[in-house]
Amino acid sequence: MLRVNVSYIKIIVLLILVGFLFAFSNYRNGNRKVIEPTIEFVGENKLFITESTVSKLLIQNQATVTGQPKEIIDLNDLEAALNSNPMIKKAEVFMSVNGKLSVEIEQKRPIARVHTNASYYIDDEGSYMPLSSNYAARVPLVTGNVKKNNLKTVFQFAKAVDQDEFLKKHVIEIRQNDDETIDFKIRKSDFMVHLGTLNQLHKKINNFKAFYQKAFKDKILDNYKLVNLKFDKQVICTKT
After folding, report:
1. Which of 114, 122, 203, 235 could crosslink 142 through cysteines, CB 3.0-4.6 Å?
2. Contact criterion met (CB below 8 Å) for 60 and 77
């Protein structure tokens, strides 16, 4: 008569039970409904895009993710949809075991605002950023001959302004001429500053700071209509 090892039977039954519980758990977990997503804005800029707008971008199967089964949610697709928004610099989406969806949004940071035949921002990476109906950034206006697909020159100068406390405080307008040379205007003064090309930019900026501080001290800033910086070794001023 064949003798059956009871220990083997117990192990087989235990494995079947574990497999059943695992399958049942996966089934229940996959069918959990996604609850209202938690949206967190990280970084300094939290003003240009709202939670409501972000929620509308969280679409799966042509419907918002809230209330949909957890198993059909593709986090990579959601991140791609969010990152395609021109207001968003970076988006990350996470899903917890209980179906809680968490979203982290880093918004773009504008450093200049183009105001020509079209209006938009240039962000701190040199990319296009649309205006927001929620908030207007206090950044220099960019005028003149500016094309959305060729922002390199004006971005380089706008970035220099953004990174320099003196220029950031004083520069209110950046003008790009047809030959891509740069002019700019400063707060509370009527004269135009002709920078020229961006060659020797750091030296030209230092020359302008020295001129400004001396003219301000002598109270003669209003005596000029043009300040020419295009020669890196000197500042040429035209009086009114």
Report:
1. 114
2. yes
Sign of the alpha-carbon dihedral angle for 27, 31, 32, 34: positive
Residues in Cβ contact with 145 at an 8 Å cutoff, skipping those fewer than 6 apart: 116, 176, 177, 178, 180
Output the CA angle 109-175-226, nearest 5 degrees: 130
Residue 46, beta-bridge partner list: none
Find the helix packing angle between 201-218 and 152-162, rounded to 10°. Answer: 50
**CA distance readout (Å), 53 to 37, 39, 56, 59, 82:** 13, 11, 5, 12, 10
Q: How far apart are CA 146 and CA 180, in angstroms?
A: 9
Which tokens hold the place of 101?
């969806």
Question: Residue 188: CB partners within 8 Å, gap ≥ 6?
Answer: none
Q: Please answer whether residues 233 and 206 qualify as being in contact, where contact means their C-beta atoms are separated by less than 8 angstroms.
A: no
17-69 pLDDT, tens digit per residue, is: 655 444 444 444 445 677 788 899 998 777 899 998 998 888 876 677 777 88
CA 138 to chain centre: 15
Distance, CA of 240 to CA of 238 (rounded, Å): 7
